[in-house]
Please model this.
Amino acid sequence: MALEKELKYFESIKSELLKQHKDKFALIKDETLVGTFTKMEEAYEEGVKRYGTEPFLIKMVIEEEPVESIPSLMSGAINAHT
Model:
């Protein structure tokens, strides 16, 4: 899975990040926290500047990930036949 190492690292430091950087955007490459940023755009620009087209992770530092639902998938409408 792409960015598996970065996601695992984020989870391992999440409690510390929540103490000091809640609601900011963490930029992570491999097992390194490059920095935290107020805006996602700032984190993205820094990631591109440092890594170009190599994959890197930007993740918002929040306690719980929001759950997203797509009503048409949940109701089965996406499989409806006319």
Notes: The chain has one domain: 4-65. Strands lie at 25-29, 32-37, 57-60. The first helix runs from residue 4 to 21.
